[in-house]
Amino acid sequence: MQRGGDPLPDRVLCEISLAELDRDGSVWREVGGHEILAVATADGVRVYNGVCPHLGGPLSQSCVRGDRVRCPWHRYEFDVSDGRCRTVPGHPWRNLPGRRETKPARLRLQPLRHEIAGDRVRVLQRGSE
Amino acid sequence: MKFRFDLTKHVAATRANVIANYLDLEHLDMHSGLGDCEVLTETDRCACFTLVSRIGPFRFRNLHYYEFRPPDTIVNAVRSPLGPMIVTSTVRELDSGTSDVHSEVDVHTEIDLPALLYPFRSLLERLLRRTNRTILEEDRSILERRQRLLGDTVRDYLRKEQHLLFKEAFRASLESGRS
Description:
With 129 residues, chain A is mainly beta. Chain A has one helix at 18-24, and strands at residues 11-17, 26-31, 34-41, 44-49, 64-65, 68-70, 77-79, 85-87, 114-117, 120-125. Chain A has one helix and ten strands.
């Protein structure tokens, strides 16, 4: 919020047509340094930051298969319906007894603010960001 | 019969980022010629693991002894089909005089070739240099993207749930300002 004033209005980062989402299931955009993933799920449209929350991998270089998107760097898989990490690949310590069990990391895709306006999804950025 | 060669690699990333990438075994599967890594044992600065290398149609499961010598050196001793091989990589961060970061990796390779293979050493050197270049290009995509998005930080590599070789030694090296 601005000191002594009104909050800055949200800024539209980009617009994605619902027709494009219906056709492809998922859409990638790169706008002003932001990587954006929009996905049509059974529960509606989800919009996420396309930077992998694990180590910063480019989720845009993979494709959404079913309800999962997989990072090409470390092959962590995320559920696009809620953004949670579902699969950590068999990491190199998997057979070392008593060490480093494989379990899904507590990582989530970062959801981005958005609104549906007619046949378009508007991805928003807070005015103060 | 000992055979040695050197190469130098340049990358636009900090030394800490380059070292973290060396210690991150989980990313090896993204390399076109490497995969199926399995750690057999690990201490605070040394580990032994197997790793499959693919060269053309051939697959070799090599045994690696891997050692971190803080702050800047990785020693990788490999029992390979070519014979015992020791690859020593030393990472130096260069002062570019600008805000851009830049590191140089000196890679010294020494192979104890069987006499039968020694006449083919030039061919083997070319093959190993090409493999090294390919791996560097694939790593560059990680290093330079991380540098662009996250800057100098390697904190994410040090998270509790993150698997990284010699994490505590790396952390100590960072905290002492040596990496």
